[in-house]
Amino acid sequence: MKPSTLLLALTMATLLPHAASAQDTNKDTNKDNDKAEKAREAAFDKRVFGGAIGTKAAACFVRHYDGAHLAQRPKQKVAAMKLLLTAENHPKEPTAYAYKVGVQFRNKPGNFDGGSNCSHMVDDDDTKAASFSCDVECGGGGIEVAMAKDDKSAIVKLGVIGVYDRKHPKADAVTLEGGADDKMFRLDRVDTAECAELTGHKEAASLQRK
Questions:
Q1: How does DSSP classify residue 207?
Q2: Could you read off the pLDDT of 184-196 as tens digits, one per residue?
Q3: 56, 89, 142, 208 — which has fewest CB within 10 A?
């Protein structure tokens, strides 16, 4: 064997075990990261729904703003908001998360509803923080939902969503965008029955966790 060939063989023999070891280490690290993220997501689910999801789970949050509050925030368009968060498990499928929101405007009569799917979002800058990122059905925007420290309230960060007049669901959507006084909403946890109006009759009957 030529000296150069022998040197190459010795070098490869030295490097390959280290490369394999590095790959194994990366795989283990990725598995650990995945487990940690799943654990944070499960912990957040318990905070939102008050326990393990089981087959189905739901949580309802509500806020009605009085005249004094609105007088201090003249640019706030929302006079009342209801938020229903749901989770549903199916065999061999990821948990399905969704939200439905009901809105009353201060200068527009009627009840307006919207909703779409949600997914977990973990803050890269704070690995202990988690929230739901909820999309809109068409286009960009949506809302982000986090929990207050005592888990008795939901903190809703509003991007852009479309809501529909409940009595005229086929009419054009009304755009609700986070403005000067509509960027953040703190909604209080209430019994899920108070969000029944955001669902059909069959859905309302199954809001309680199973």
A1: -
A2: 999 999 999 999 9
A3: 208
Widest pairwise Cα distance in the chain: 92
**Which tokens belong to 45?**
């689910």
Taking only the tens place, the pLDDT of each residue in 47-85 is 999 998 989 999 999 999 999 999 999 999 999 999 999
Tokens coding 42: 């499960």
- CA 161 vs CA 139, 141, 146: distances in Å: 9, 6, 17
The whole-angstrom separation of Cα 22 and Cα 188 is 49
Residue with tokens 């903190």: 155
Mean of pLDDT over the chain: 84
- Average the pLDDT over 136-156 and give the result: 87
- Domain ranges for the chain, please list them: 56-205
For residue 91, with 0-12 CB atoms within 10 Å meaning exposed, 13-18 middle and 19 or more buried, which class applies? exposed
Three-state DSSP class for residue 135: coil
Q: Give me 78's structure tokens.
A: 């929302």
- The structure's pTM equals 0.80
Please report the beta strands in 68-203, taking only residues with DSSP state E, as ranges in sequence order: 78-88, 96-105, 112-122, 130-134, 143-147, 153-158, 160-165, 174-177, 184-190
